[in-house]
């Protein structure tokens, strides 16, 4: 028993080290991609001789970043991809003019990287969010071991096994304004499940759009006169002046937590239960990574409207791209307290109580295809192994092929479904999807190869004006219509980034590992697939230019947070094109 405190201390020290390493890797990969590499201030294969002693004997590439006033940052990388994405194997070391080398932790590194950037008055907020993300990662690591056990539900397991989050985001796990008790009670990373807060509500105050979701709510609470709220939102709701007035008038009564427990998914605020017909996407006034995750009133309108507008396209995809599907959001609901106060006050209540209902995959579909979230595959396990590599190795053993051939087949199965559907939607129908890793589900055949792709979350889906006239959207309010449009340039950048950089770029990074030849073969495979798609889609200029060597657009998550921009207004960094380099057998 006397060893327990020391054992616990050693374990916590190791977990803190894991959290530090992943925070450092996220920060440096963002900084390299968005700032240092485009400005020629980094070398991903440096041969400097004056390295700190602890790095001289370590294997791997030496990555060197040049900083103002002659300072340098160096560290070792196990490998660096053709897109400049690195996996580091040590802490970064800093050397200033006239001083020796010293290692940096994540906080010191963040302050160092932000120092030369514009907007120093904004540094404090981002530094706080970086520290918040680090502390929350530590918390999740300390509580994840017992919670994240295998379940019979592949979808649920993948939703709740994403400890590290977005690999190229400076604050992948930041959640501002949430107590540790609430964090652990409602976060997917620790295997949480919880009941909703319920209110008895005068039926005249409830508003439904699209399909009627009341059967699902009844299934959760066993009654017809109740309406739910997320636990993270209930304090805000109860403090609202219109809600207080409604309670005083007997129109609304808070009954507390009760009913069937739900599971938070990887987006945190969207909840799942295998027996429900819908995922339930709630409002939470909590900043998760970039954004405060409330359901804006116009998003409640636009998601249902998009589902109705895109029904013909969904039917078309079933016929033309049978391995690809969109997940409809056919219903929304909220409360309308406009009779009790001003429009602005009523809008706040509408957003707090807003729920979007996303169609669930039925039990037969889940059993047949064993779906998983892409982000849960293209990431690391808690002990540092690539998740998708293990899947490919099992496929290789089952089918009697070597790993490179298995990886080629695995990527082909995935990329053909993903790109076939996403590019058809954009270039044939002017529909902009956001197929990033958290929005993409993969389904598998009996041998373990990807054979199905679902894209979810219509909040990020937009329409290109050349394909969708104002008359077609005339039944929608002006603000809702405006929220649905992307011009052609922004549409292409968002689709190309999500599909090719965020999604397939990470897939190839994990599938290839440190095998540079395999990485080139996999990018060559993507290049051939895109050229075929270009021909089939009538040679759209943006796709033709990409196949000919135009740069890949990469969303600037680091600078977006630093400059306090809305996600919709994020800028893009031009990445060297890996497609043409792969055909030529070169590194970009």
Number of helices: 22
Termini separation (Å)?
57 Å
Gyration radius from CA atoms, angstroms: 24 Å
Helix content: 40-55%
- In order across it, which strands form the biggest sheet? 8-16-17-12-11-10-7-9
The averaged pLDDT comes out at 92
Poorly predicted parts: 1-5
Shape: globular
Based on secondary structure, the structural category is alpha+beta
**Beta-strand content bin:** 15-25%
Q: Sheet with the most strands? A: 8 strands, antiparallel
* Total beta-strand segments: 24
3D structure, described in words:
This protein has 588 residues and is an alpha+beta fold. Helices cover 45% and strands 18% of the residues. The protein is built from 22 helices and 24 strands. The strands form six sheets. It has an eight-stranded antiparallel β-sheet with strand order 8-16-17-12-11-10-7-9, sandwiched between helices. α1 runs parallel beside α3 (106-114). The longest helix is centred in the N-terminal third of the chain and has 33 residues, at 4-36. It starts with a helix and ends with a helix. InterPro entries: Aerobactin_biosyn_IucA/IucC_N (IPR007310), IucA/IucC-like_C (IPR022770), LucA/IucC-like (IPR037455), PvsD/AcsD-like_thumb_beta (IPR043033), PvsD/AcsD-like_thumb_helix (IPR043032). It comes from Pseudomonas zhanjiangensis. Residues 409-568 form the Aerobactin siderophore biosynthesis IucA/IucC-like C-terminal domain.
How would you summarize what this structure contains?
This protein is of the alpha+beta class and 588 residues long. It is built from 22 helices and 24 strands.
